[in-house]
Amino acid sequence: VLSMRFSSLRELDLSNNNVKDLGLKLLSDGLENPYCKLETLSLSGCLITVDGCASLESALSSSHSYLRKLDLSYNHPGDLGMKLLVPEQKNPSWKLETLRYGEKTRAGFLKYSHELTLDPNTAHRELLLSEGNRKVSSNQGSSICCICFSGCSE
């Protein structure tokens, strides 16, 4: 699709897929094609490492690349992988304007969270539930782990 002569694809979101480095190599080959007009590529959580970043750098260095926005958050490119892709260090022909990588905010991690509550009718009799059945403590002074897991020795 990326190399079709009249491709109208401008945005591609492959987030949370197992694209990995080999898949990114194939995508990068497509990005180098003069017919490819892709401007936004989202690869968040695709298991990309420094090897994938090297393939992508080659594509971005191509005079045919139209890519302006790239999301590599929740991957494993390492410092070297990111250095390959930092737009300020590249030649002026690079069109990449936005590079997203490394979620370091609490909000970024909270997207994977889920609010849980415990059922007081099925909770162990030595556990005390509070705060709307979201907080657990022991009513016997024992460790919660020892109450819940047999074979525990404190």
UniProtKB/TrEMBL annotation:
Matches recorded under InterPro entries: B30.2/SPRY_sf, ConA-like_dom_sf, Leu-rich_rpt, LRR_dom_sf, NLR, PRY
Classification via PROSITE patterns: LRR
Alphabetical UniProt keywords: Leucine-rich repeat, Repeat
Coiled coil, from the record: none
Gene3D superfamilies per the UniProt record, alphabetical: 2.60.120.920, Ribonuclease Inhibitor
Pfam families: LRR_6, PRY
Annotated SUPFAM superfamilies: Concanavalin A-like lectins/glucanases, RNI-like
Domain SPRY-associated: 116-138
PANTHER family referenced in this protein's UniProt entry, alphabetically: NACHT, LRR AND CARD DOMAINS-CONTAINING
Annotated protein name in UniProt: SPRY-associated domain-containing protein
